Amino acid sequence: MVCFRLAPVPGSGFLLLCLVLGAVSSYALELNLTDSSKATCLYAKWQMNFTIRYETTDMHNKTVTISDLGAATYNGSFCGDDQNGPKIAVQFGSGFSWIVNFTKEASSASTYLVDHISFSYNTNDNTTFPDAKEKGVFTVNYRVALKIPLNEMFRCNSLSTLENSDVVQHYWDVHVQAFVQNGTVSTTEFLCDKDKTITTAVPIIPTTVPSPTKPVVGSYSVVNSNGTCLLATMGLQLNITHDKVASVFNINPNTTNATGSCQPQTALLRLSSSNVKYLDFVFAVKNENRFYLKEVNVTMLLVNGSVYSISNTNLSYWDAPLGSSYMCNKEQTVSVSGAFQINTFDLRVQPFSVTEGKYSTAQDCSADDDNFLVPIAVGAALAGVLILVLLAYFIGLKRHHAGYEQF
To answer: Could you name the Gene Ontology cellular component terms for this entry (predicted)?
Structure first.
C-alpha cells in the first residue's frame, strides 16, 4: 500500500489518500477526509473507470477507456459547512476531473443524498484523444439522488453504470460515508440493491480450476462507413486468478455482442455480454507495414458477484504484415498479467485493409509451423524406403547377371 499525505484543503483539514495497488490495473481509491480538529468527516473507498466516445477529424467514432488513475490529485475535496455539503473532487490524467456532491435532505434528519456526479475531460490532449474533431473541455452531469441513512456506511461491490451518448462511467467496490459523526466511521452497512440480491444467494466458488472444455469458435466483425473494416474468428477462454481463487470462463459467441472502430493507425474490437461488460482487443500499426495486438482491457462480473477489471496497453502479440491476416490454429496464450490470461483457439484476425469483407492471405503463427514437420518427416521416410528398394533392385540385378555369366 502506497500512501500520500496531501497539503491541507481550506476548511477541510488534512486529506489522507491511500492508493491500494491490487491485481487489477484500475486503482482502489481510499479517502479519509478530516476536519480542522483532525476528526474524520468523510470516508470513501471505490474503484472507477471511464469509456469516452468522440468523433475524429475523418468523421469516424473512436472510443478510449480511462482506467489508470494513479497520478490523481484531490484538490477541492471538502468536509462541508453550513452553506455547502461535502464534496469529493479528483483530478487525474491530462484534464480529467471527477466530482461527487453530498447534501442533507431538508425533509429528513436521518438521511442524506449522494446528490450529483460530474465528469470532465479535455480533448485537447492529443495523446488520449488523437485526431479529435472537437477540441475543448467537455462536462457531463448526472443527477443521482441516492438516499443513504446517516451513521451508516453505503456499500456497493456490484458494478454500477452511468451512461450518456458519449461517456460511460463504471463504479464498483464502493464504500462511502459522508457526514461522519464524532469522527468515527460506522461499521453498519447500507447495501445497494444489487448487493442485497447477491448477498441472499452467494454461489459456491470452486477452489480449484475445473478441467475446461474447448470454447466455441466465434466470428466477429466491425463495420464502418466504408464497410467491414475488421474481421476476427476465434475461440476465447479467460483464465482469472482473483483473491487466490482461479477460474476459467469461456466466451460464448452466441450470446456475445461485437462492436468497435477502425482508424488508420489503430483498430478496436469490443466484445460484451451479460457478465462481460467489455473485452477490448486494440490493434496498432508499427513501422508502417505491420500490425499487432497492442492492448487488452476487460471488465467483467465474477461468479461471486464482484467486479474484475484489468488492462495492459503494452502487449505485442499476433504480429503480421499489413494487408494480410494473422492465423493460428493451435492454442495460444495472451498473457495480459500474472492474474489474467486469454487462451485462443482457431484464431484468425485482420484489423486493417479488409477488402470486400473477406480475409486476405494469412501469416501463420510459429506454433502452426510445426505442422510442416509432418510432411517433411513423411517425405524423408518415403525417400528412405525408395532408396532401399532401389538398392535391393540393383543388388538383385547384379546377382542375376553374375549367375547368367556363370551359366
So the answer is: autophagosome membrane; late endosome membrane; lysosomal membrane; plasma membrane
Residue 150 corresponds to which cell in the numbers above? 446517516
DSSP labels for 234-267? EEEEEEEEETTEEEEEE--GGG-EEEEEE-SSEE
Residues 267 and 285: their CA atoms lie apart, in Å, by 9
Distance CA 110, CA 221 (A): 53
pLDDT digits (tens, 9 = 90+) for 321-377: 999 999 999 999 999 988 899 999 999 999 999 999 999 999 888 655 544 333 333
Query: Hey, how many other C-beta atoms are within 10 angstroms of the C-beta on 382?
Result: 10
Pairing of strands 362-364, 332-337: unpaired
For residues 345 and 331, the answer to whether their CB atoms sit within 8 Å is yes
The pTM of the full predicted model, rounded to 2 decimals, is 0.50
284 bridge partner residues: 266, 292
Kindly tell me the sign of the dihedral angle through the C-alpha atoms of 366, 367, 373, 375. negative
The Cα–Cα gap between 87 and 78 comes to 5
State how beta strands 96-104 and 111-122 pair. antiparallel
Measured distance CA(266)–CA(352) in Å, rounded = 9
DSSP category for residue 360: -
Beta bridge partners of 154: 176, 190
- The predicted pLDDT at position 347 comes to 96
Identity of the residue numbered 311: S
Question: DSSP letters of 9-33?
Answer: BTTTB-EEEEEE--SSSSPEEEEEE
CA–CA gap between residue 185 and residue 282 (Å, rounded) = 42
Consecutive H or E run containing 119: strand 111-122
